[in-house]
């Protein structure tokens, strides 16, 4: 038993932890959980906990259903909202999903990201990420709302935002302000550092930015973040939605994510004296993100609703372009701190808040590394608002656009060697099959008017 495992067992005893929740994510990024007694934890570290993998979406076929969840002791945290002096505390750890032979399961989302991170490490790189997570707060509970879609014969009750404020508005005593304070306190109690928080542009829309961390820690933190936010919202008599476009006439919720590669303590994206202080590695990485954006969009924007956000305006990126301090394209090069080497980074604006963070970061890293490995040439930057360009102007500048619908994204991803290699064969096939079914189901639910009028954006 290593020191980290010993620390976990000692902490559980000292803090009177009565239940330990073992967490992992399914192929969509949904949280799965099993609770075990502390007495079983030493065995779980050694051998894992067996479960039926075929009952978890996208994890295993019935013929290979036996799977093992083995907790990662470095992710141990006490759940602050579950403490009760009368019944003891509750803690959690993320798990790696294994086959009965002890090999990493190919369809485990966390393992997919770890495989790509290992590839980067072989080249001397550590991948750091910093997500800006947007979401809406609505009154009541999800059961009070059906949504804003058009479904024949079903009463529509759009969700009601908790306020009517906008970007950076200060709301003294407002529900959002109290909520953010409590959510951040709970996140920090779990060791998740928060950098900023504020009201976003939509009514009831909030943004909380997590501090820079390595990509695996970031993905674990995002899964935890969504759980914490939902728990705190319930305590405030509201519910939180990470749906990419919950209100048709308001901004969608993205998860703009800052990316950088480090070689040891040196930021590989920084080069003094270069344009925008971007190194050749950074420029090639951006070129990889852009060239493979169409095929990776099925992972970074995985739902029908995701494409309503991408094509819904309000600074959502539909154009595959990059620019310095330009929020109209897919990739932005921020310069909040010019001259500071450690701050050199790129911002990818195509991920939404409902994405599976493990898979999204995996395909973005794979695309960027491809650009570095093959020396992709970065196209000219877009200096103006690309959303205002005509089709002919876009063609002249060589600017393409992201898929217009989930169906379009499926078609573009089917031929992607990069996404297939990154996800692995079984997960790649499941993602495609799952998304085809989602699109067919969606088409069966909407009216002919919607299909005819809005099909290019659905």
UniProtKB/TrEMBL annotation:
InterPro entries: Gln_synt_N, Gln_synt_N_sf, Gln_synth/guanido_kin_cat_dom, Gln_synth_cat_dom, Gln_synth_gly_rich_site. Its cofactor is Mg(2+). Residues 15-102 form the GS beta-grasp domain. It comes from the Bacteria. Keywords: ATP-binding, Ligase, Magnesium, Metal-binding, Nucleotide-binding. GO terms for biological process: glutamine biosynthetic process. This is L-glutamine synthetase. Gene3D superfamilies: Glutamine synthetase, N-terminal domain, Glutamine synthetase/guanido kinase, catalytic domain. It comes from Pseudokineococcus lusitanus. The keyword Ligase applies. Belongs to the glutamine synthetase family. GO terms for molecular function: ATP binding; glutamine synthetase activity; metal ion binding. Residues 109-458 form the GS catalytic domain. It holds the Pfam family Gln-synt_N. SMART domains: Gln-synt_C.
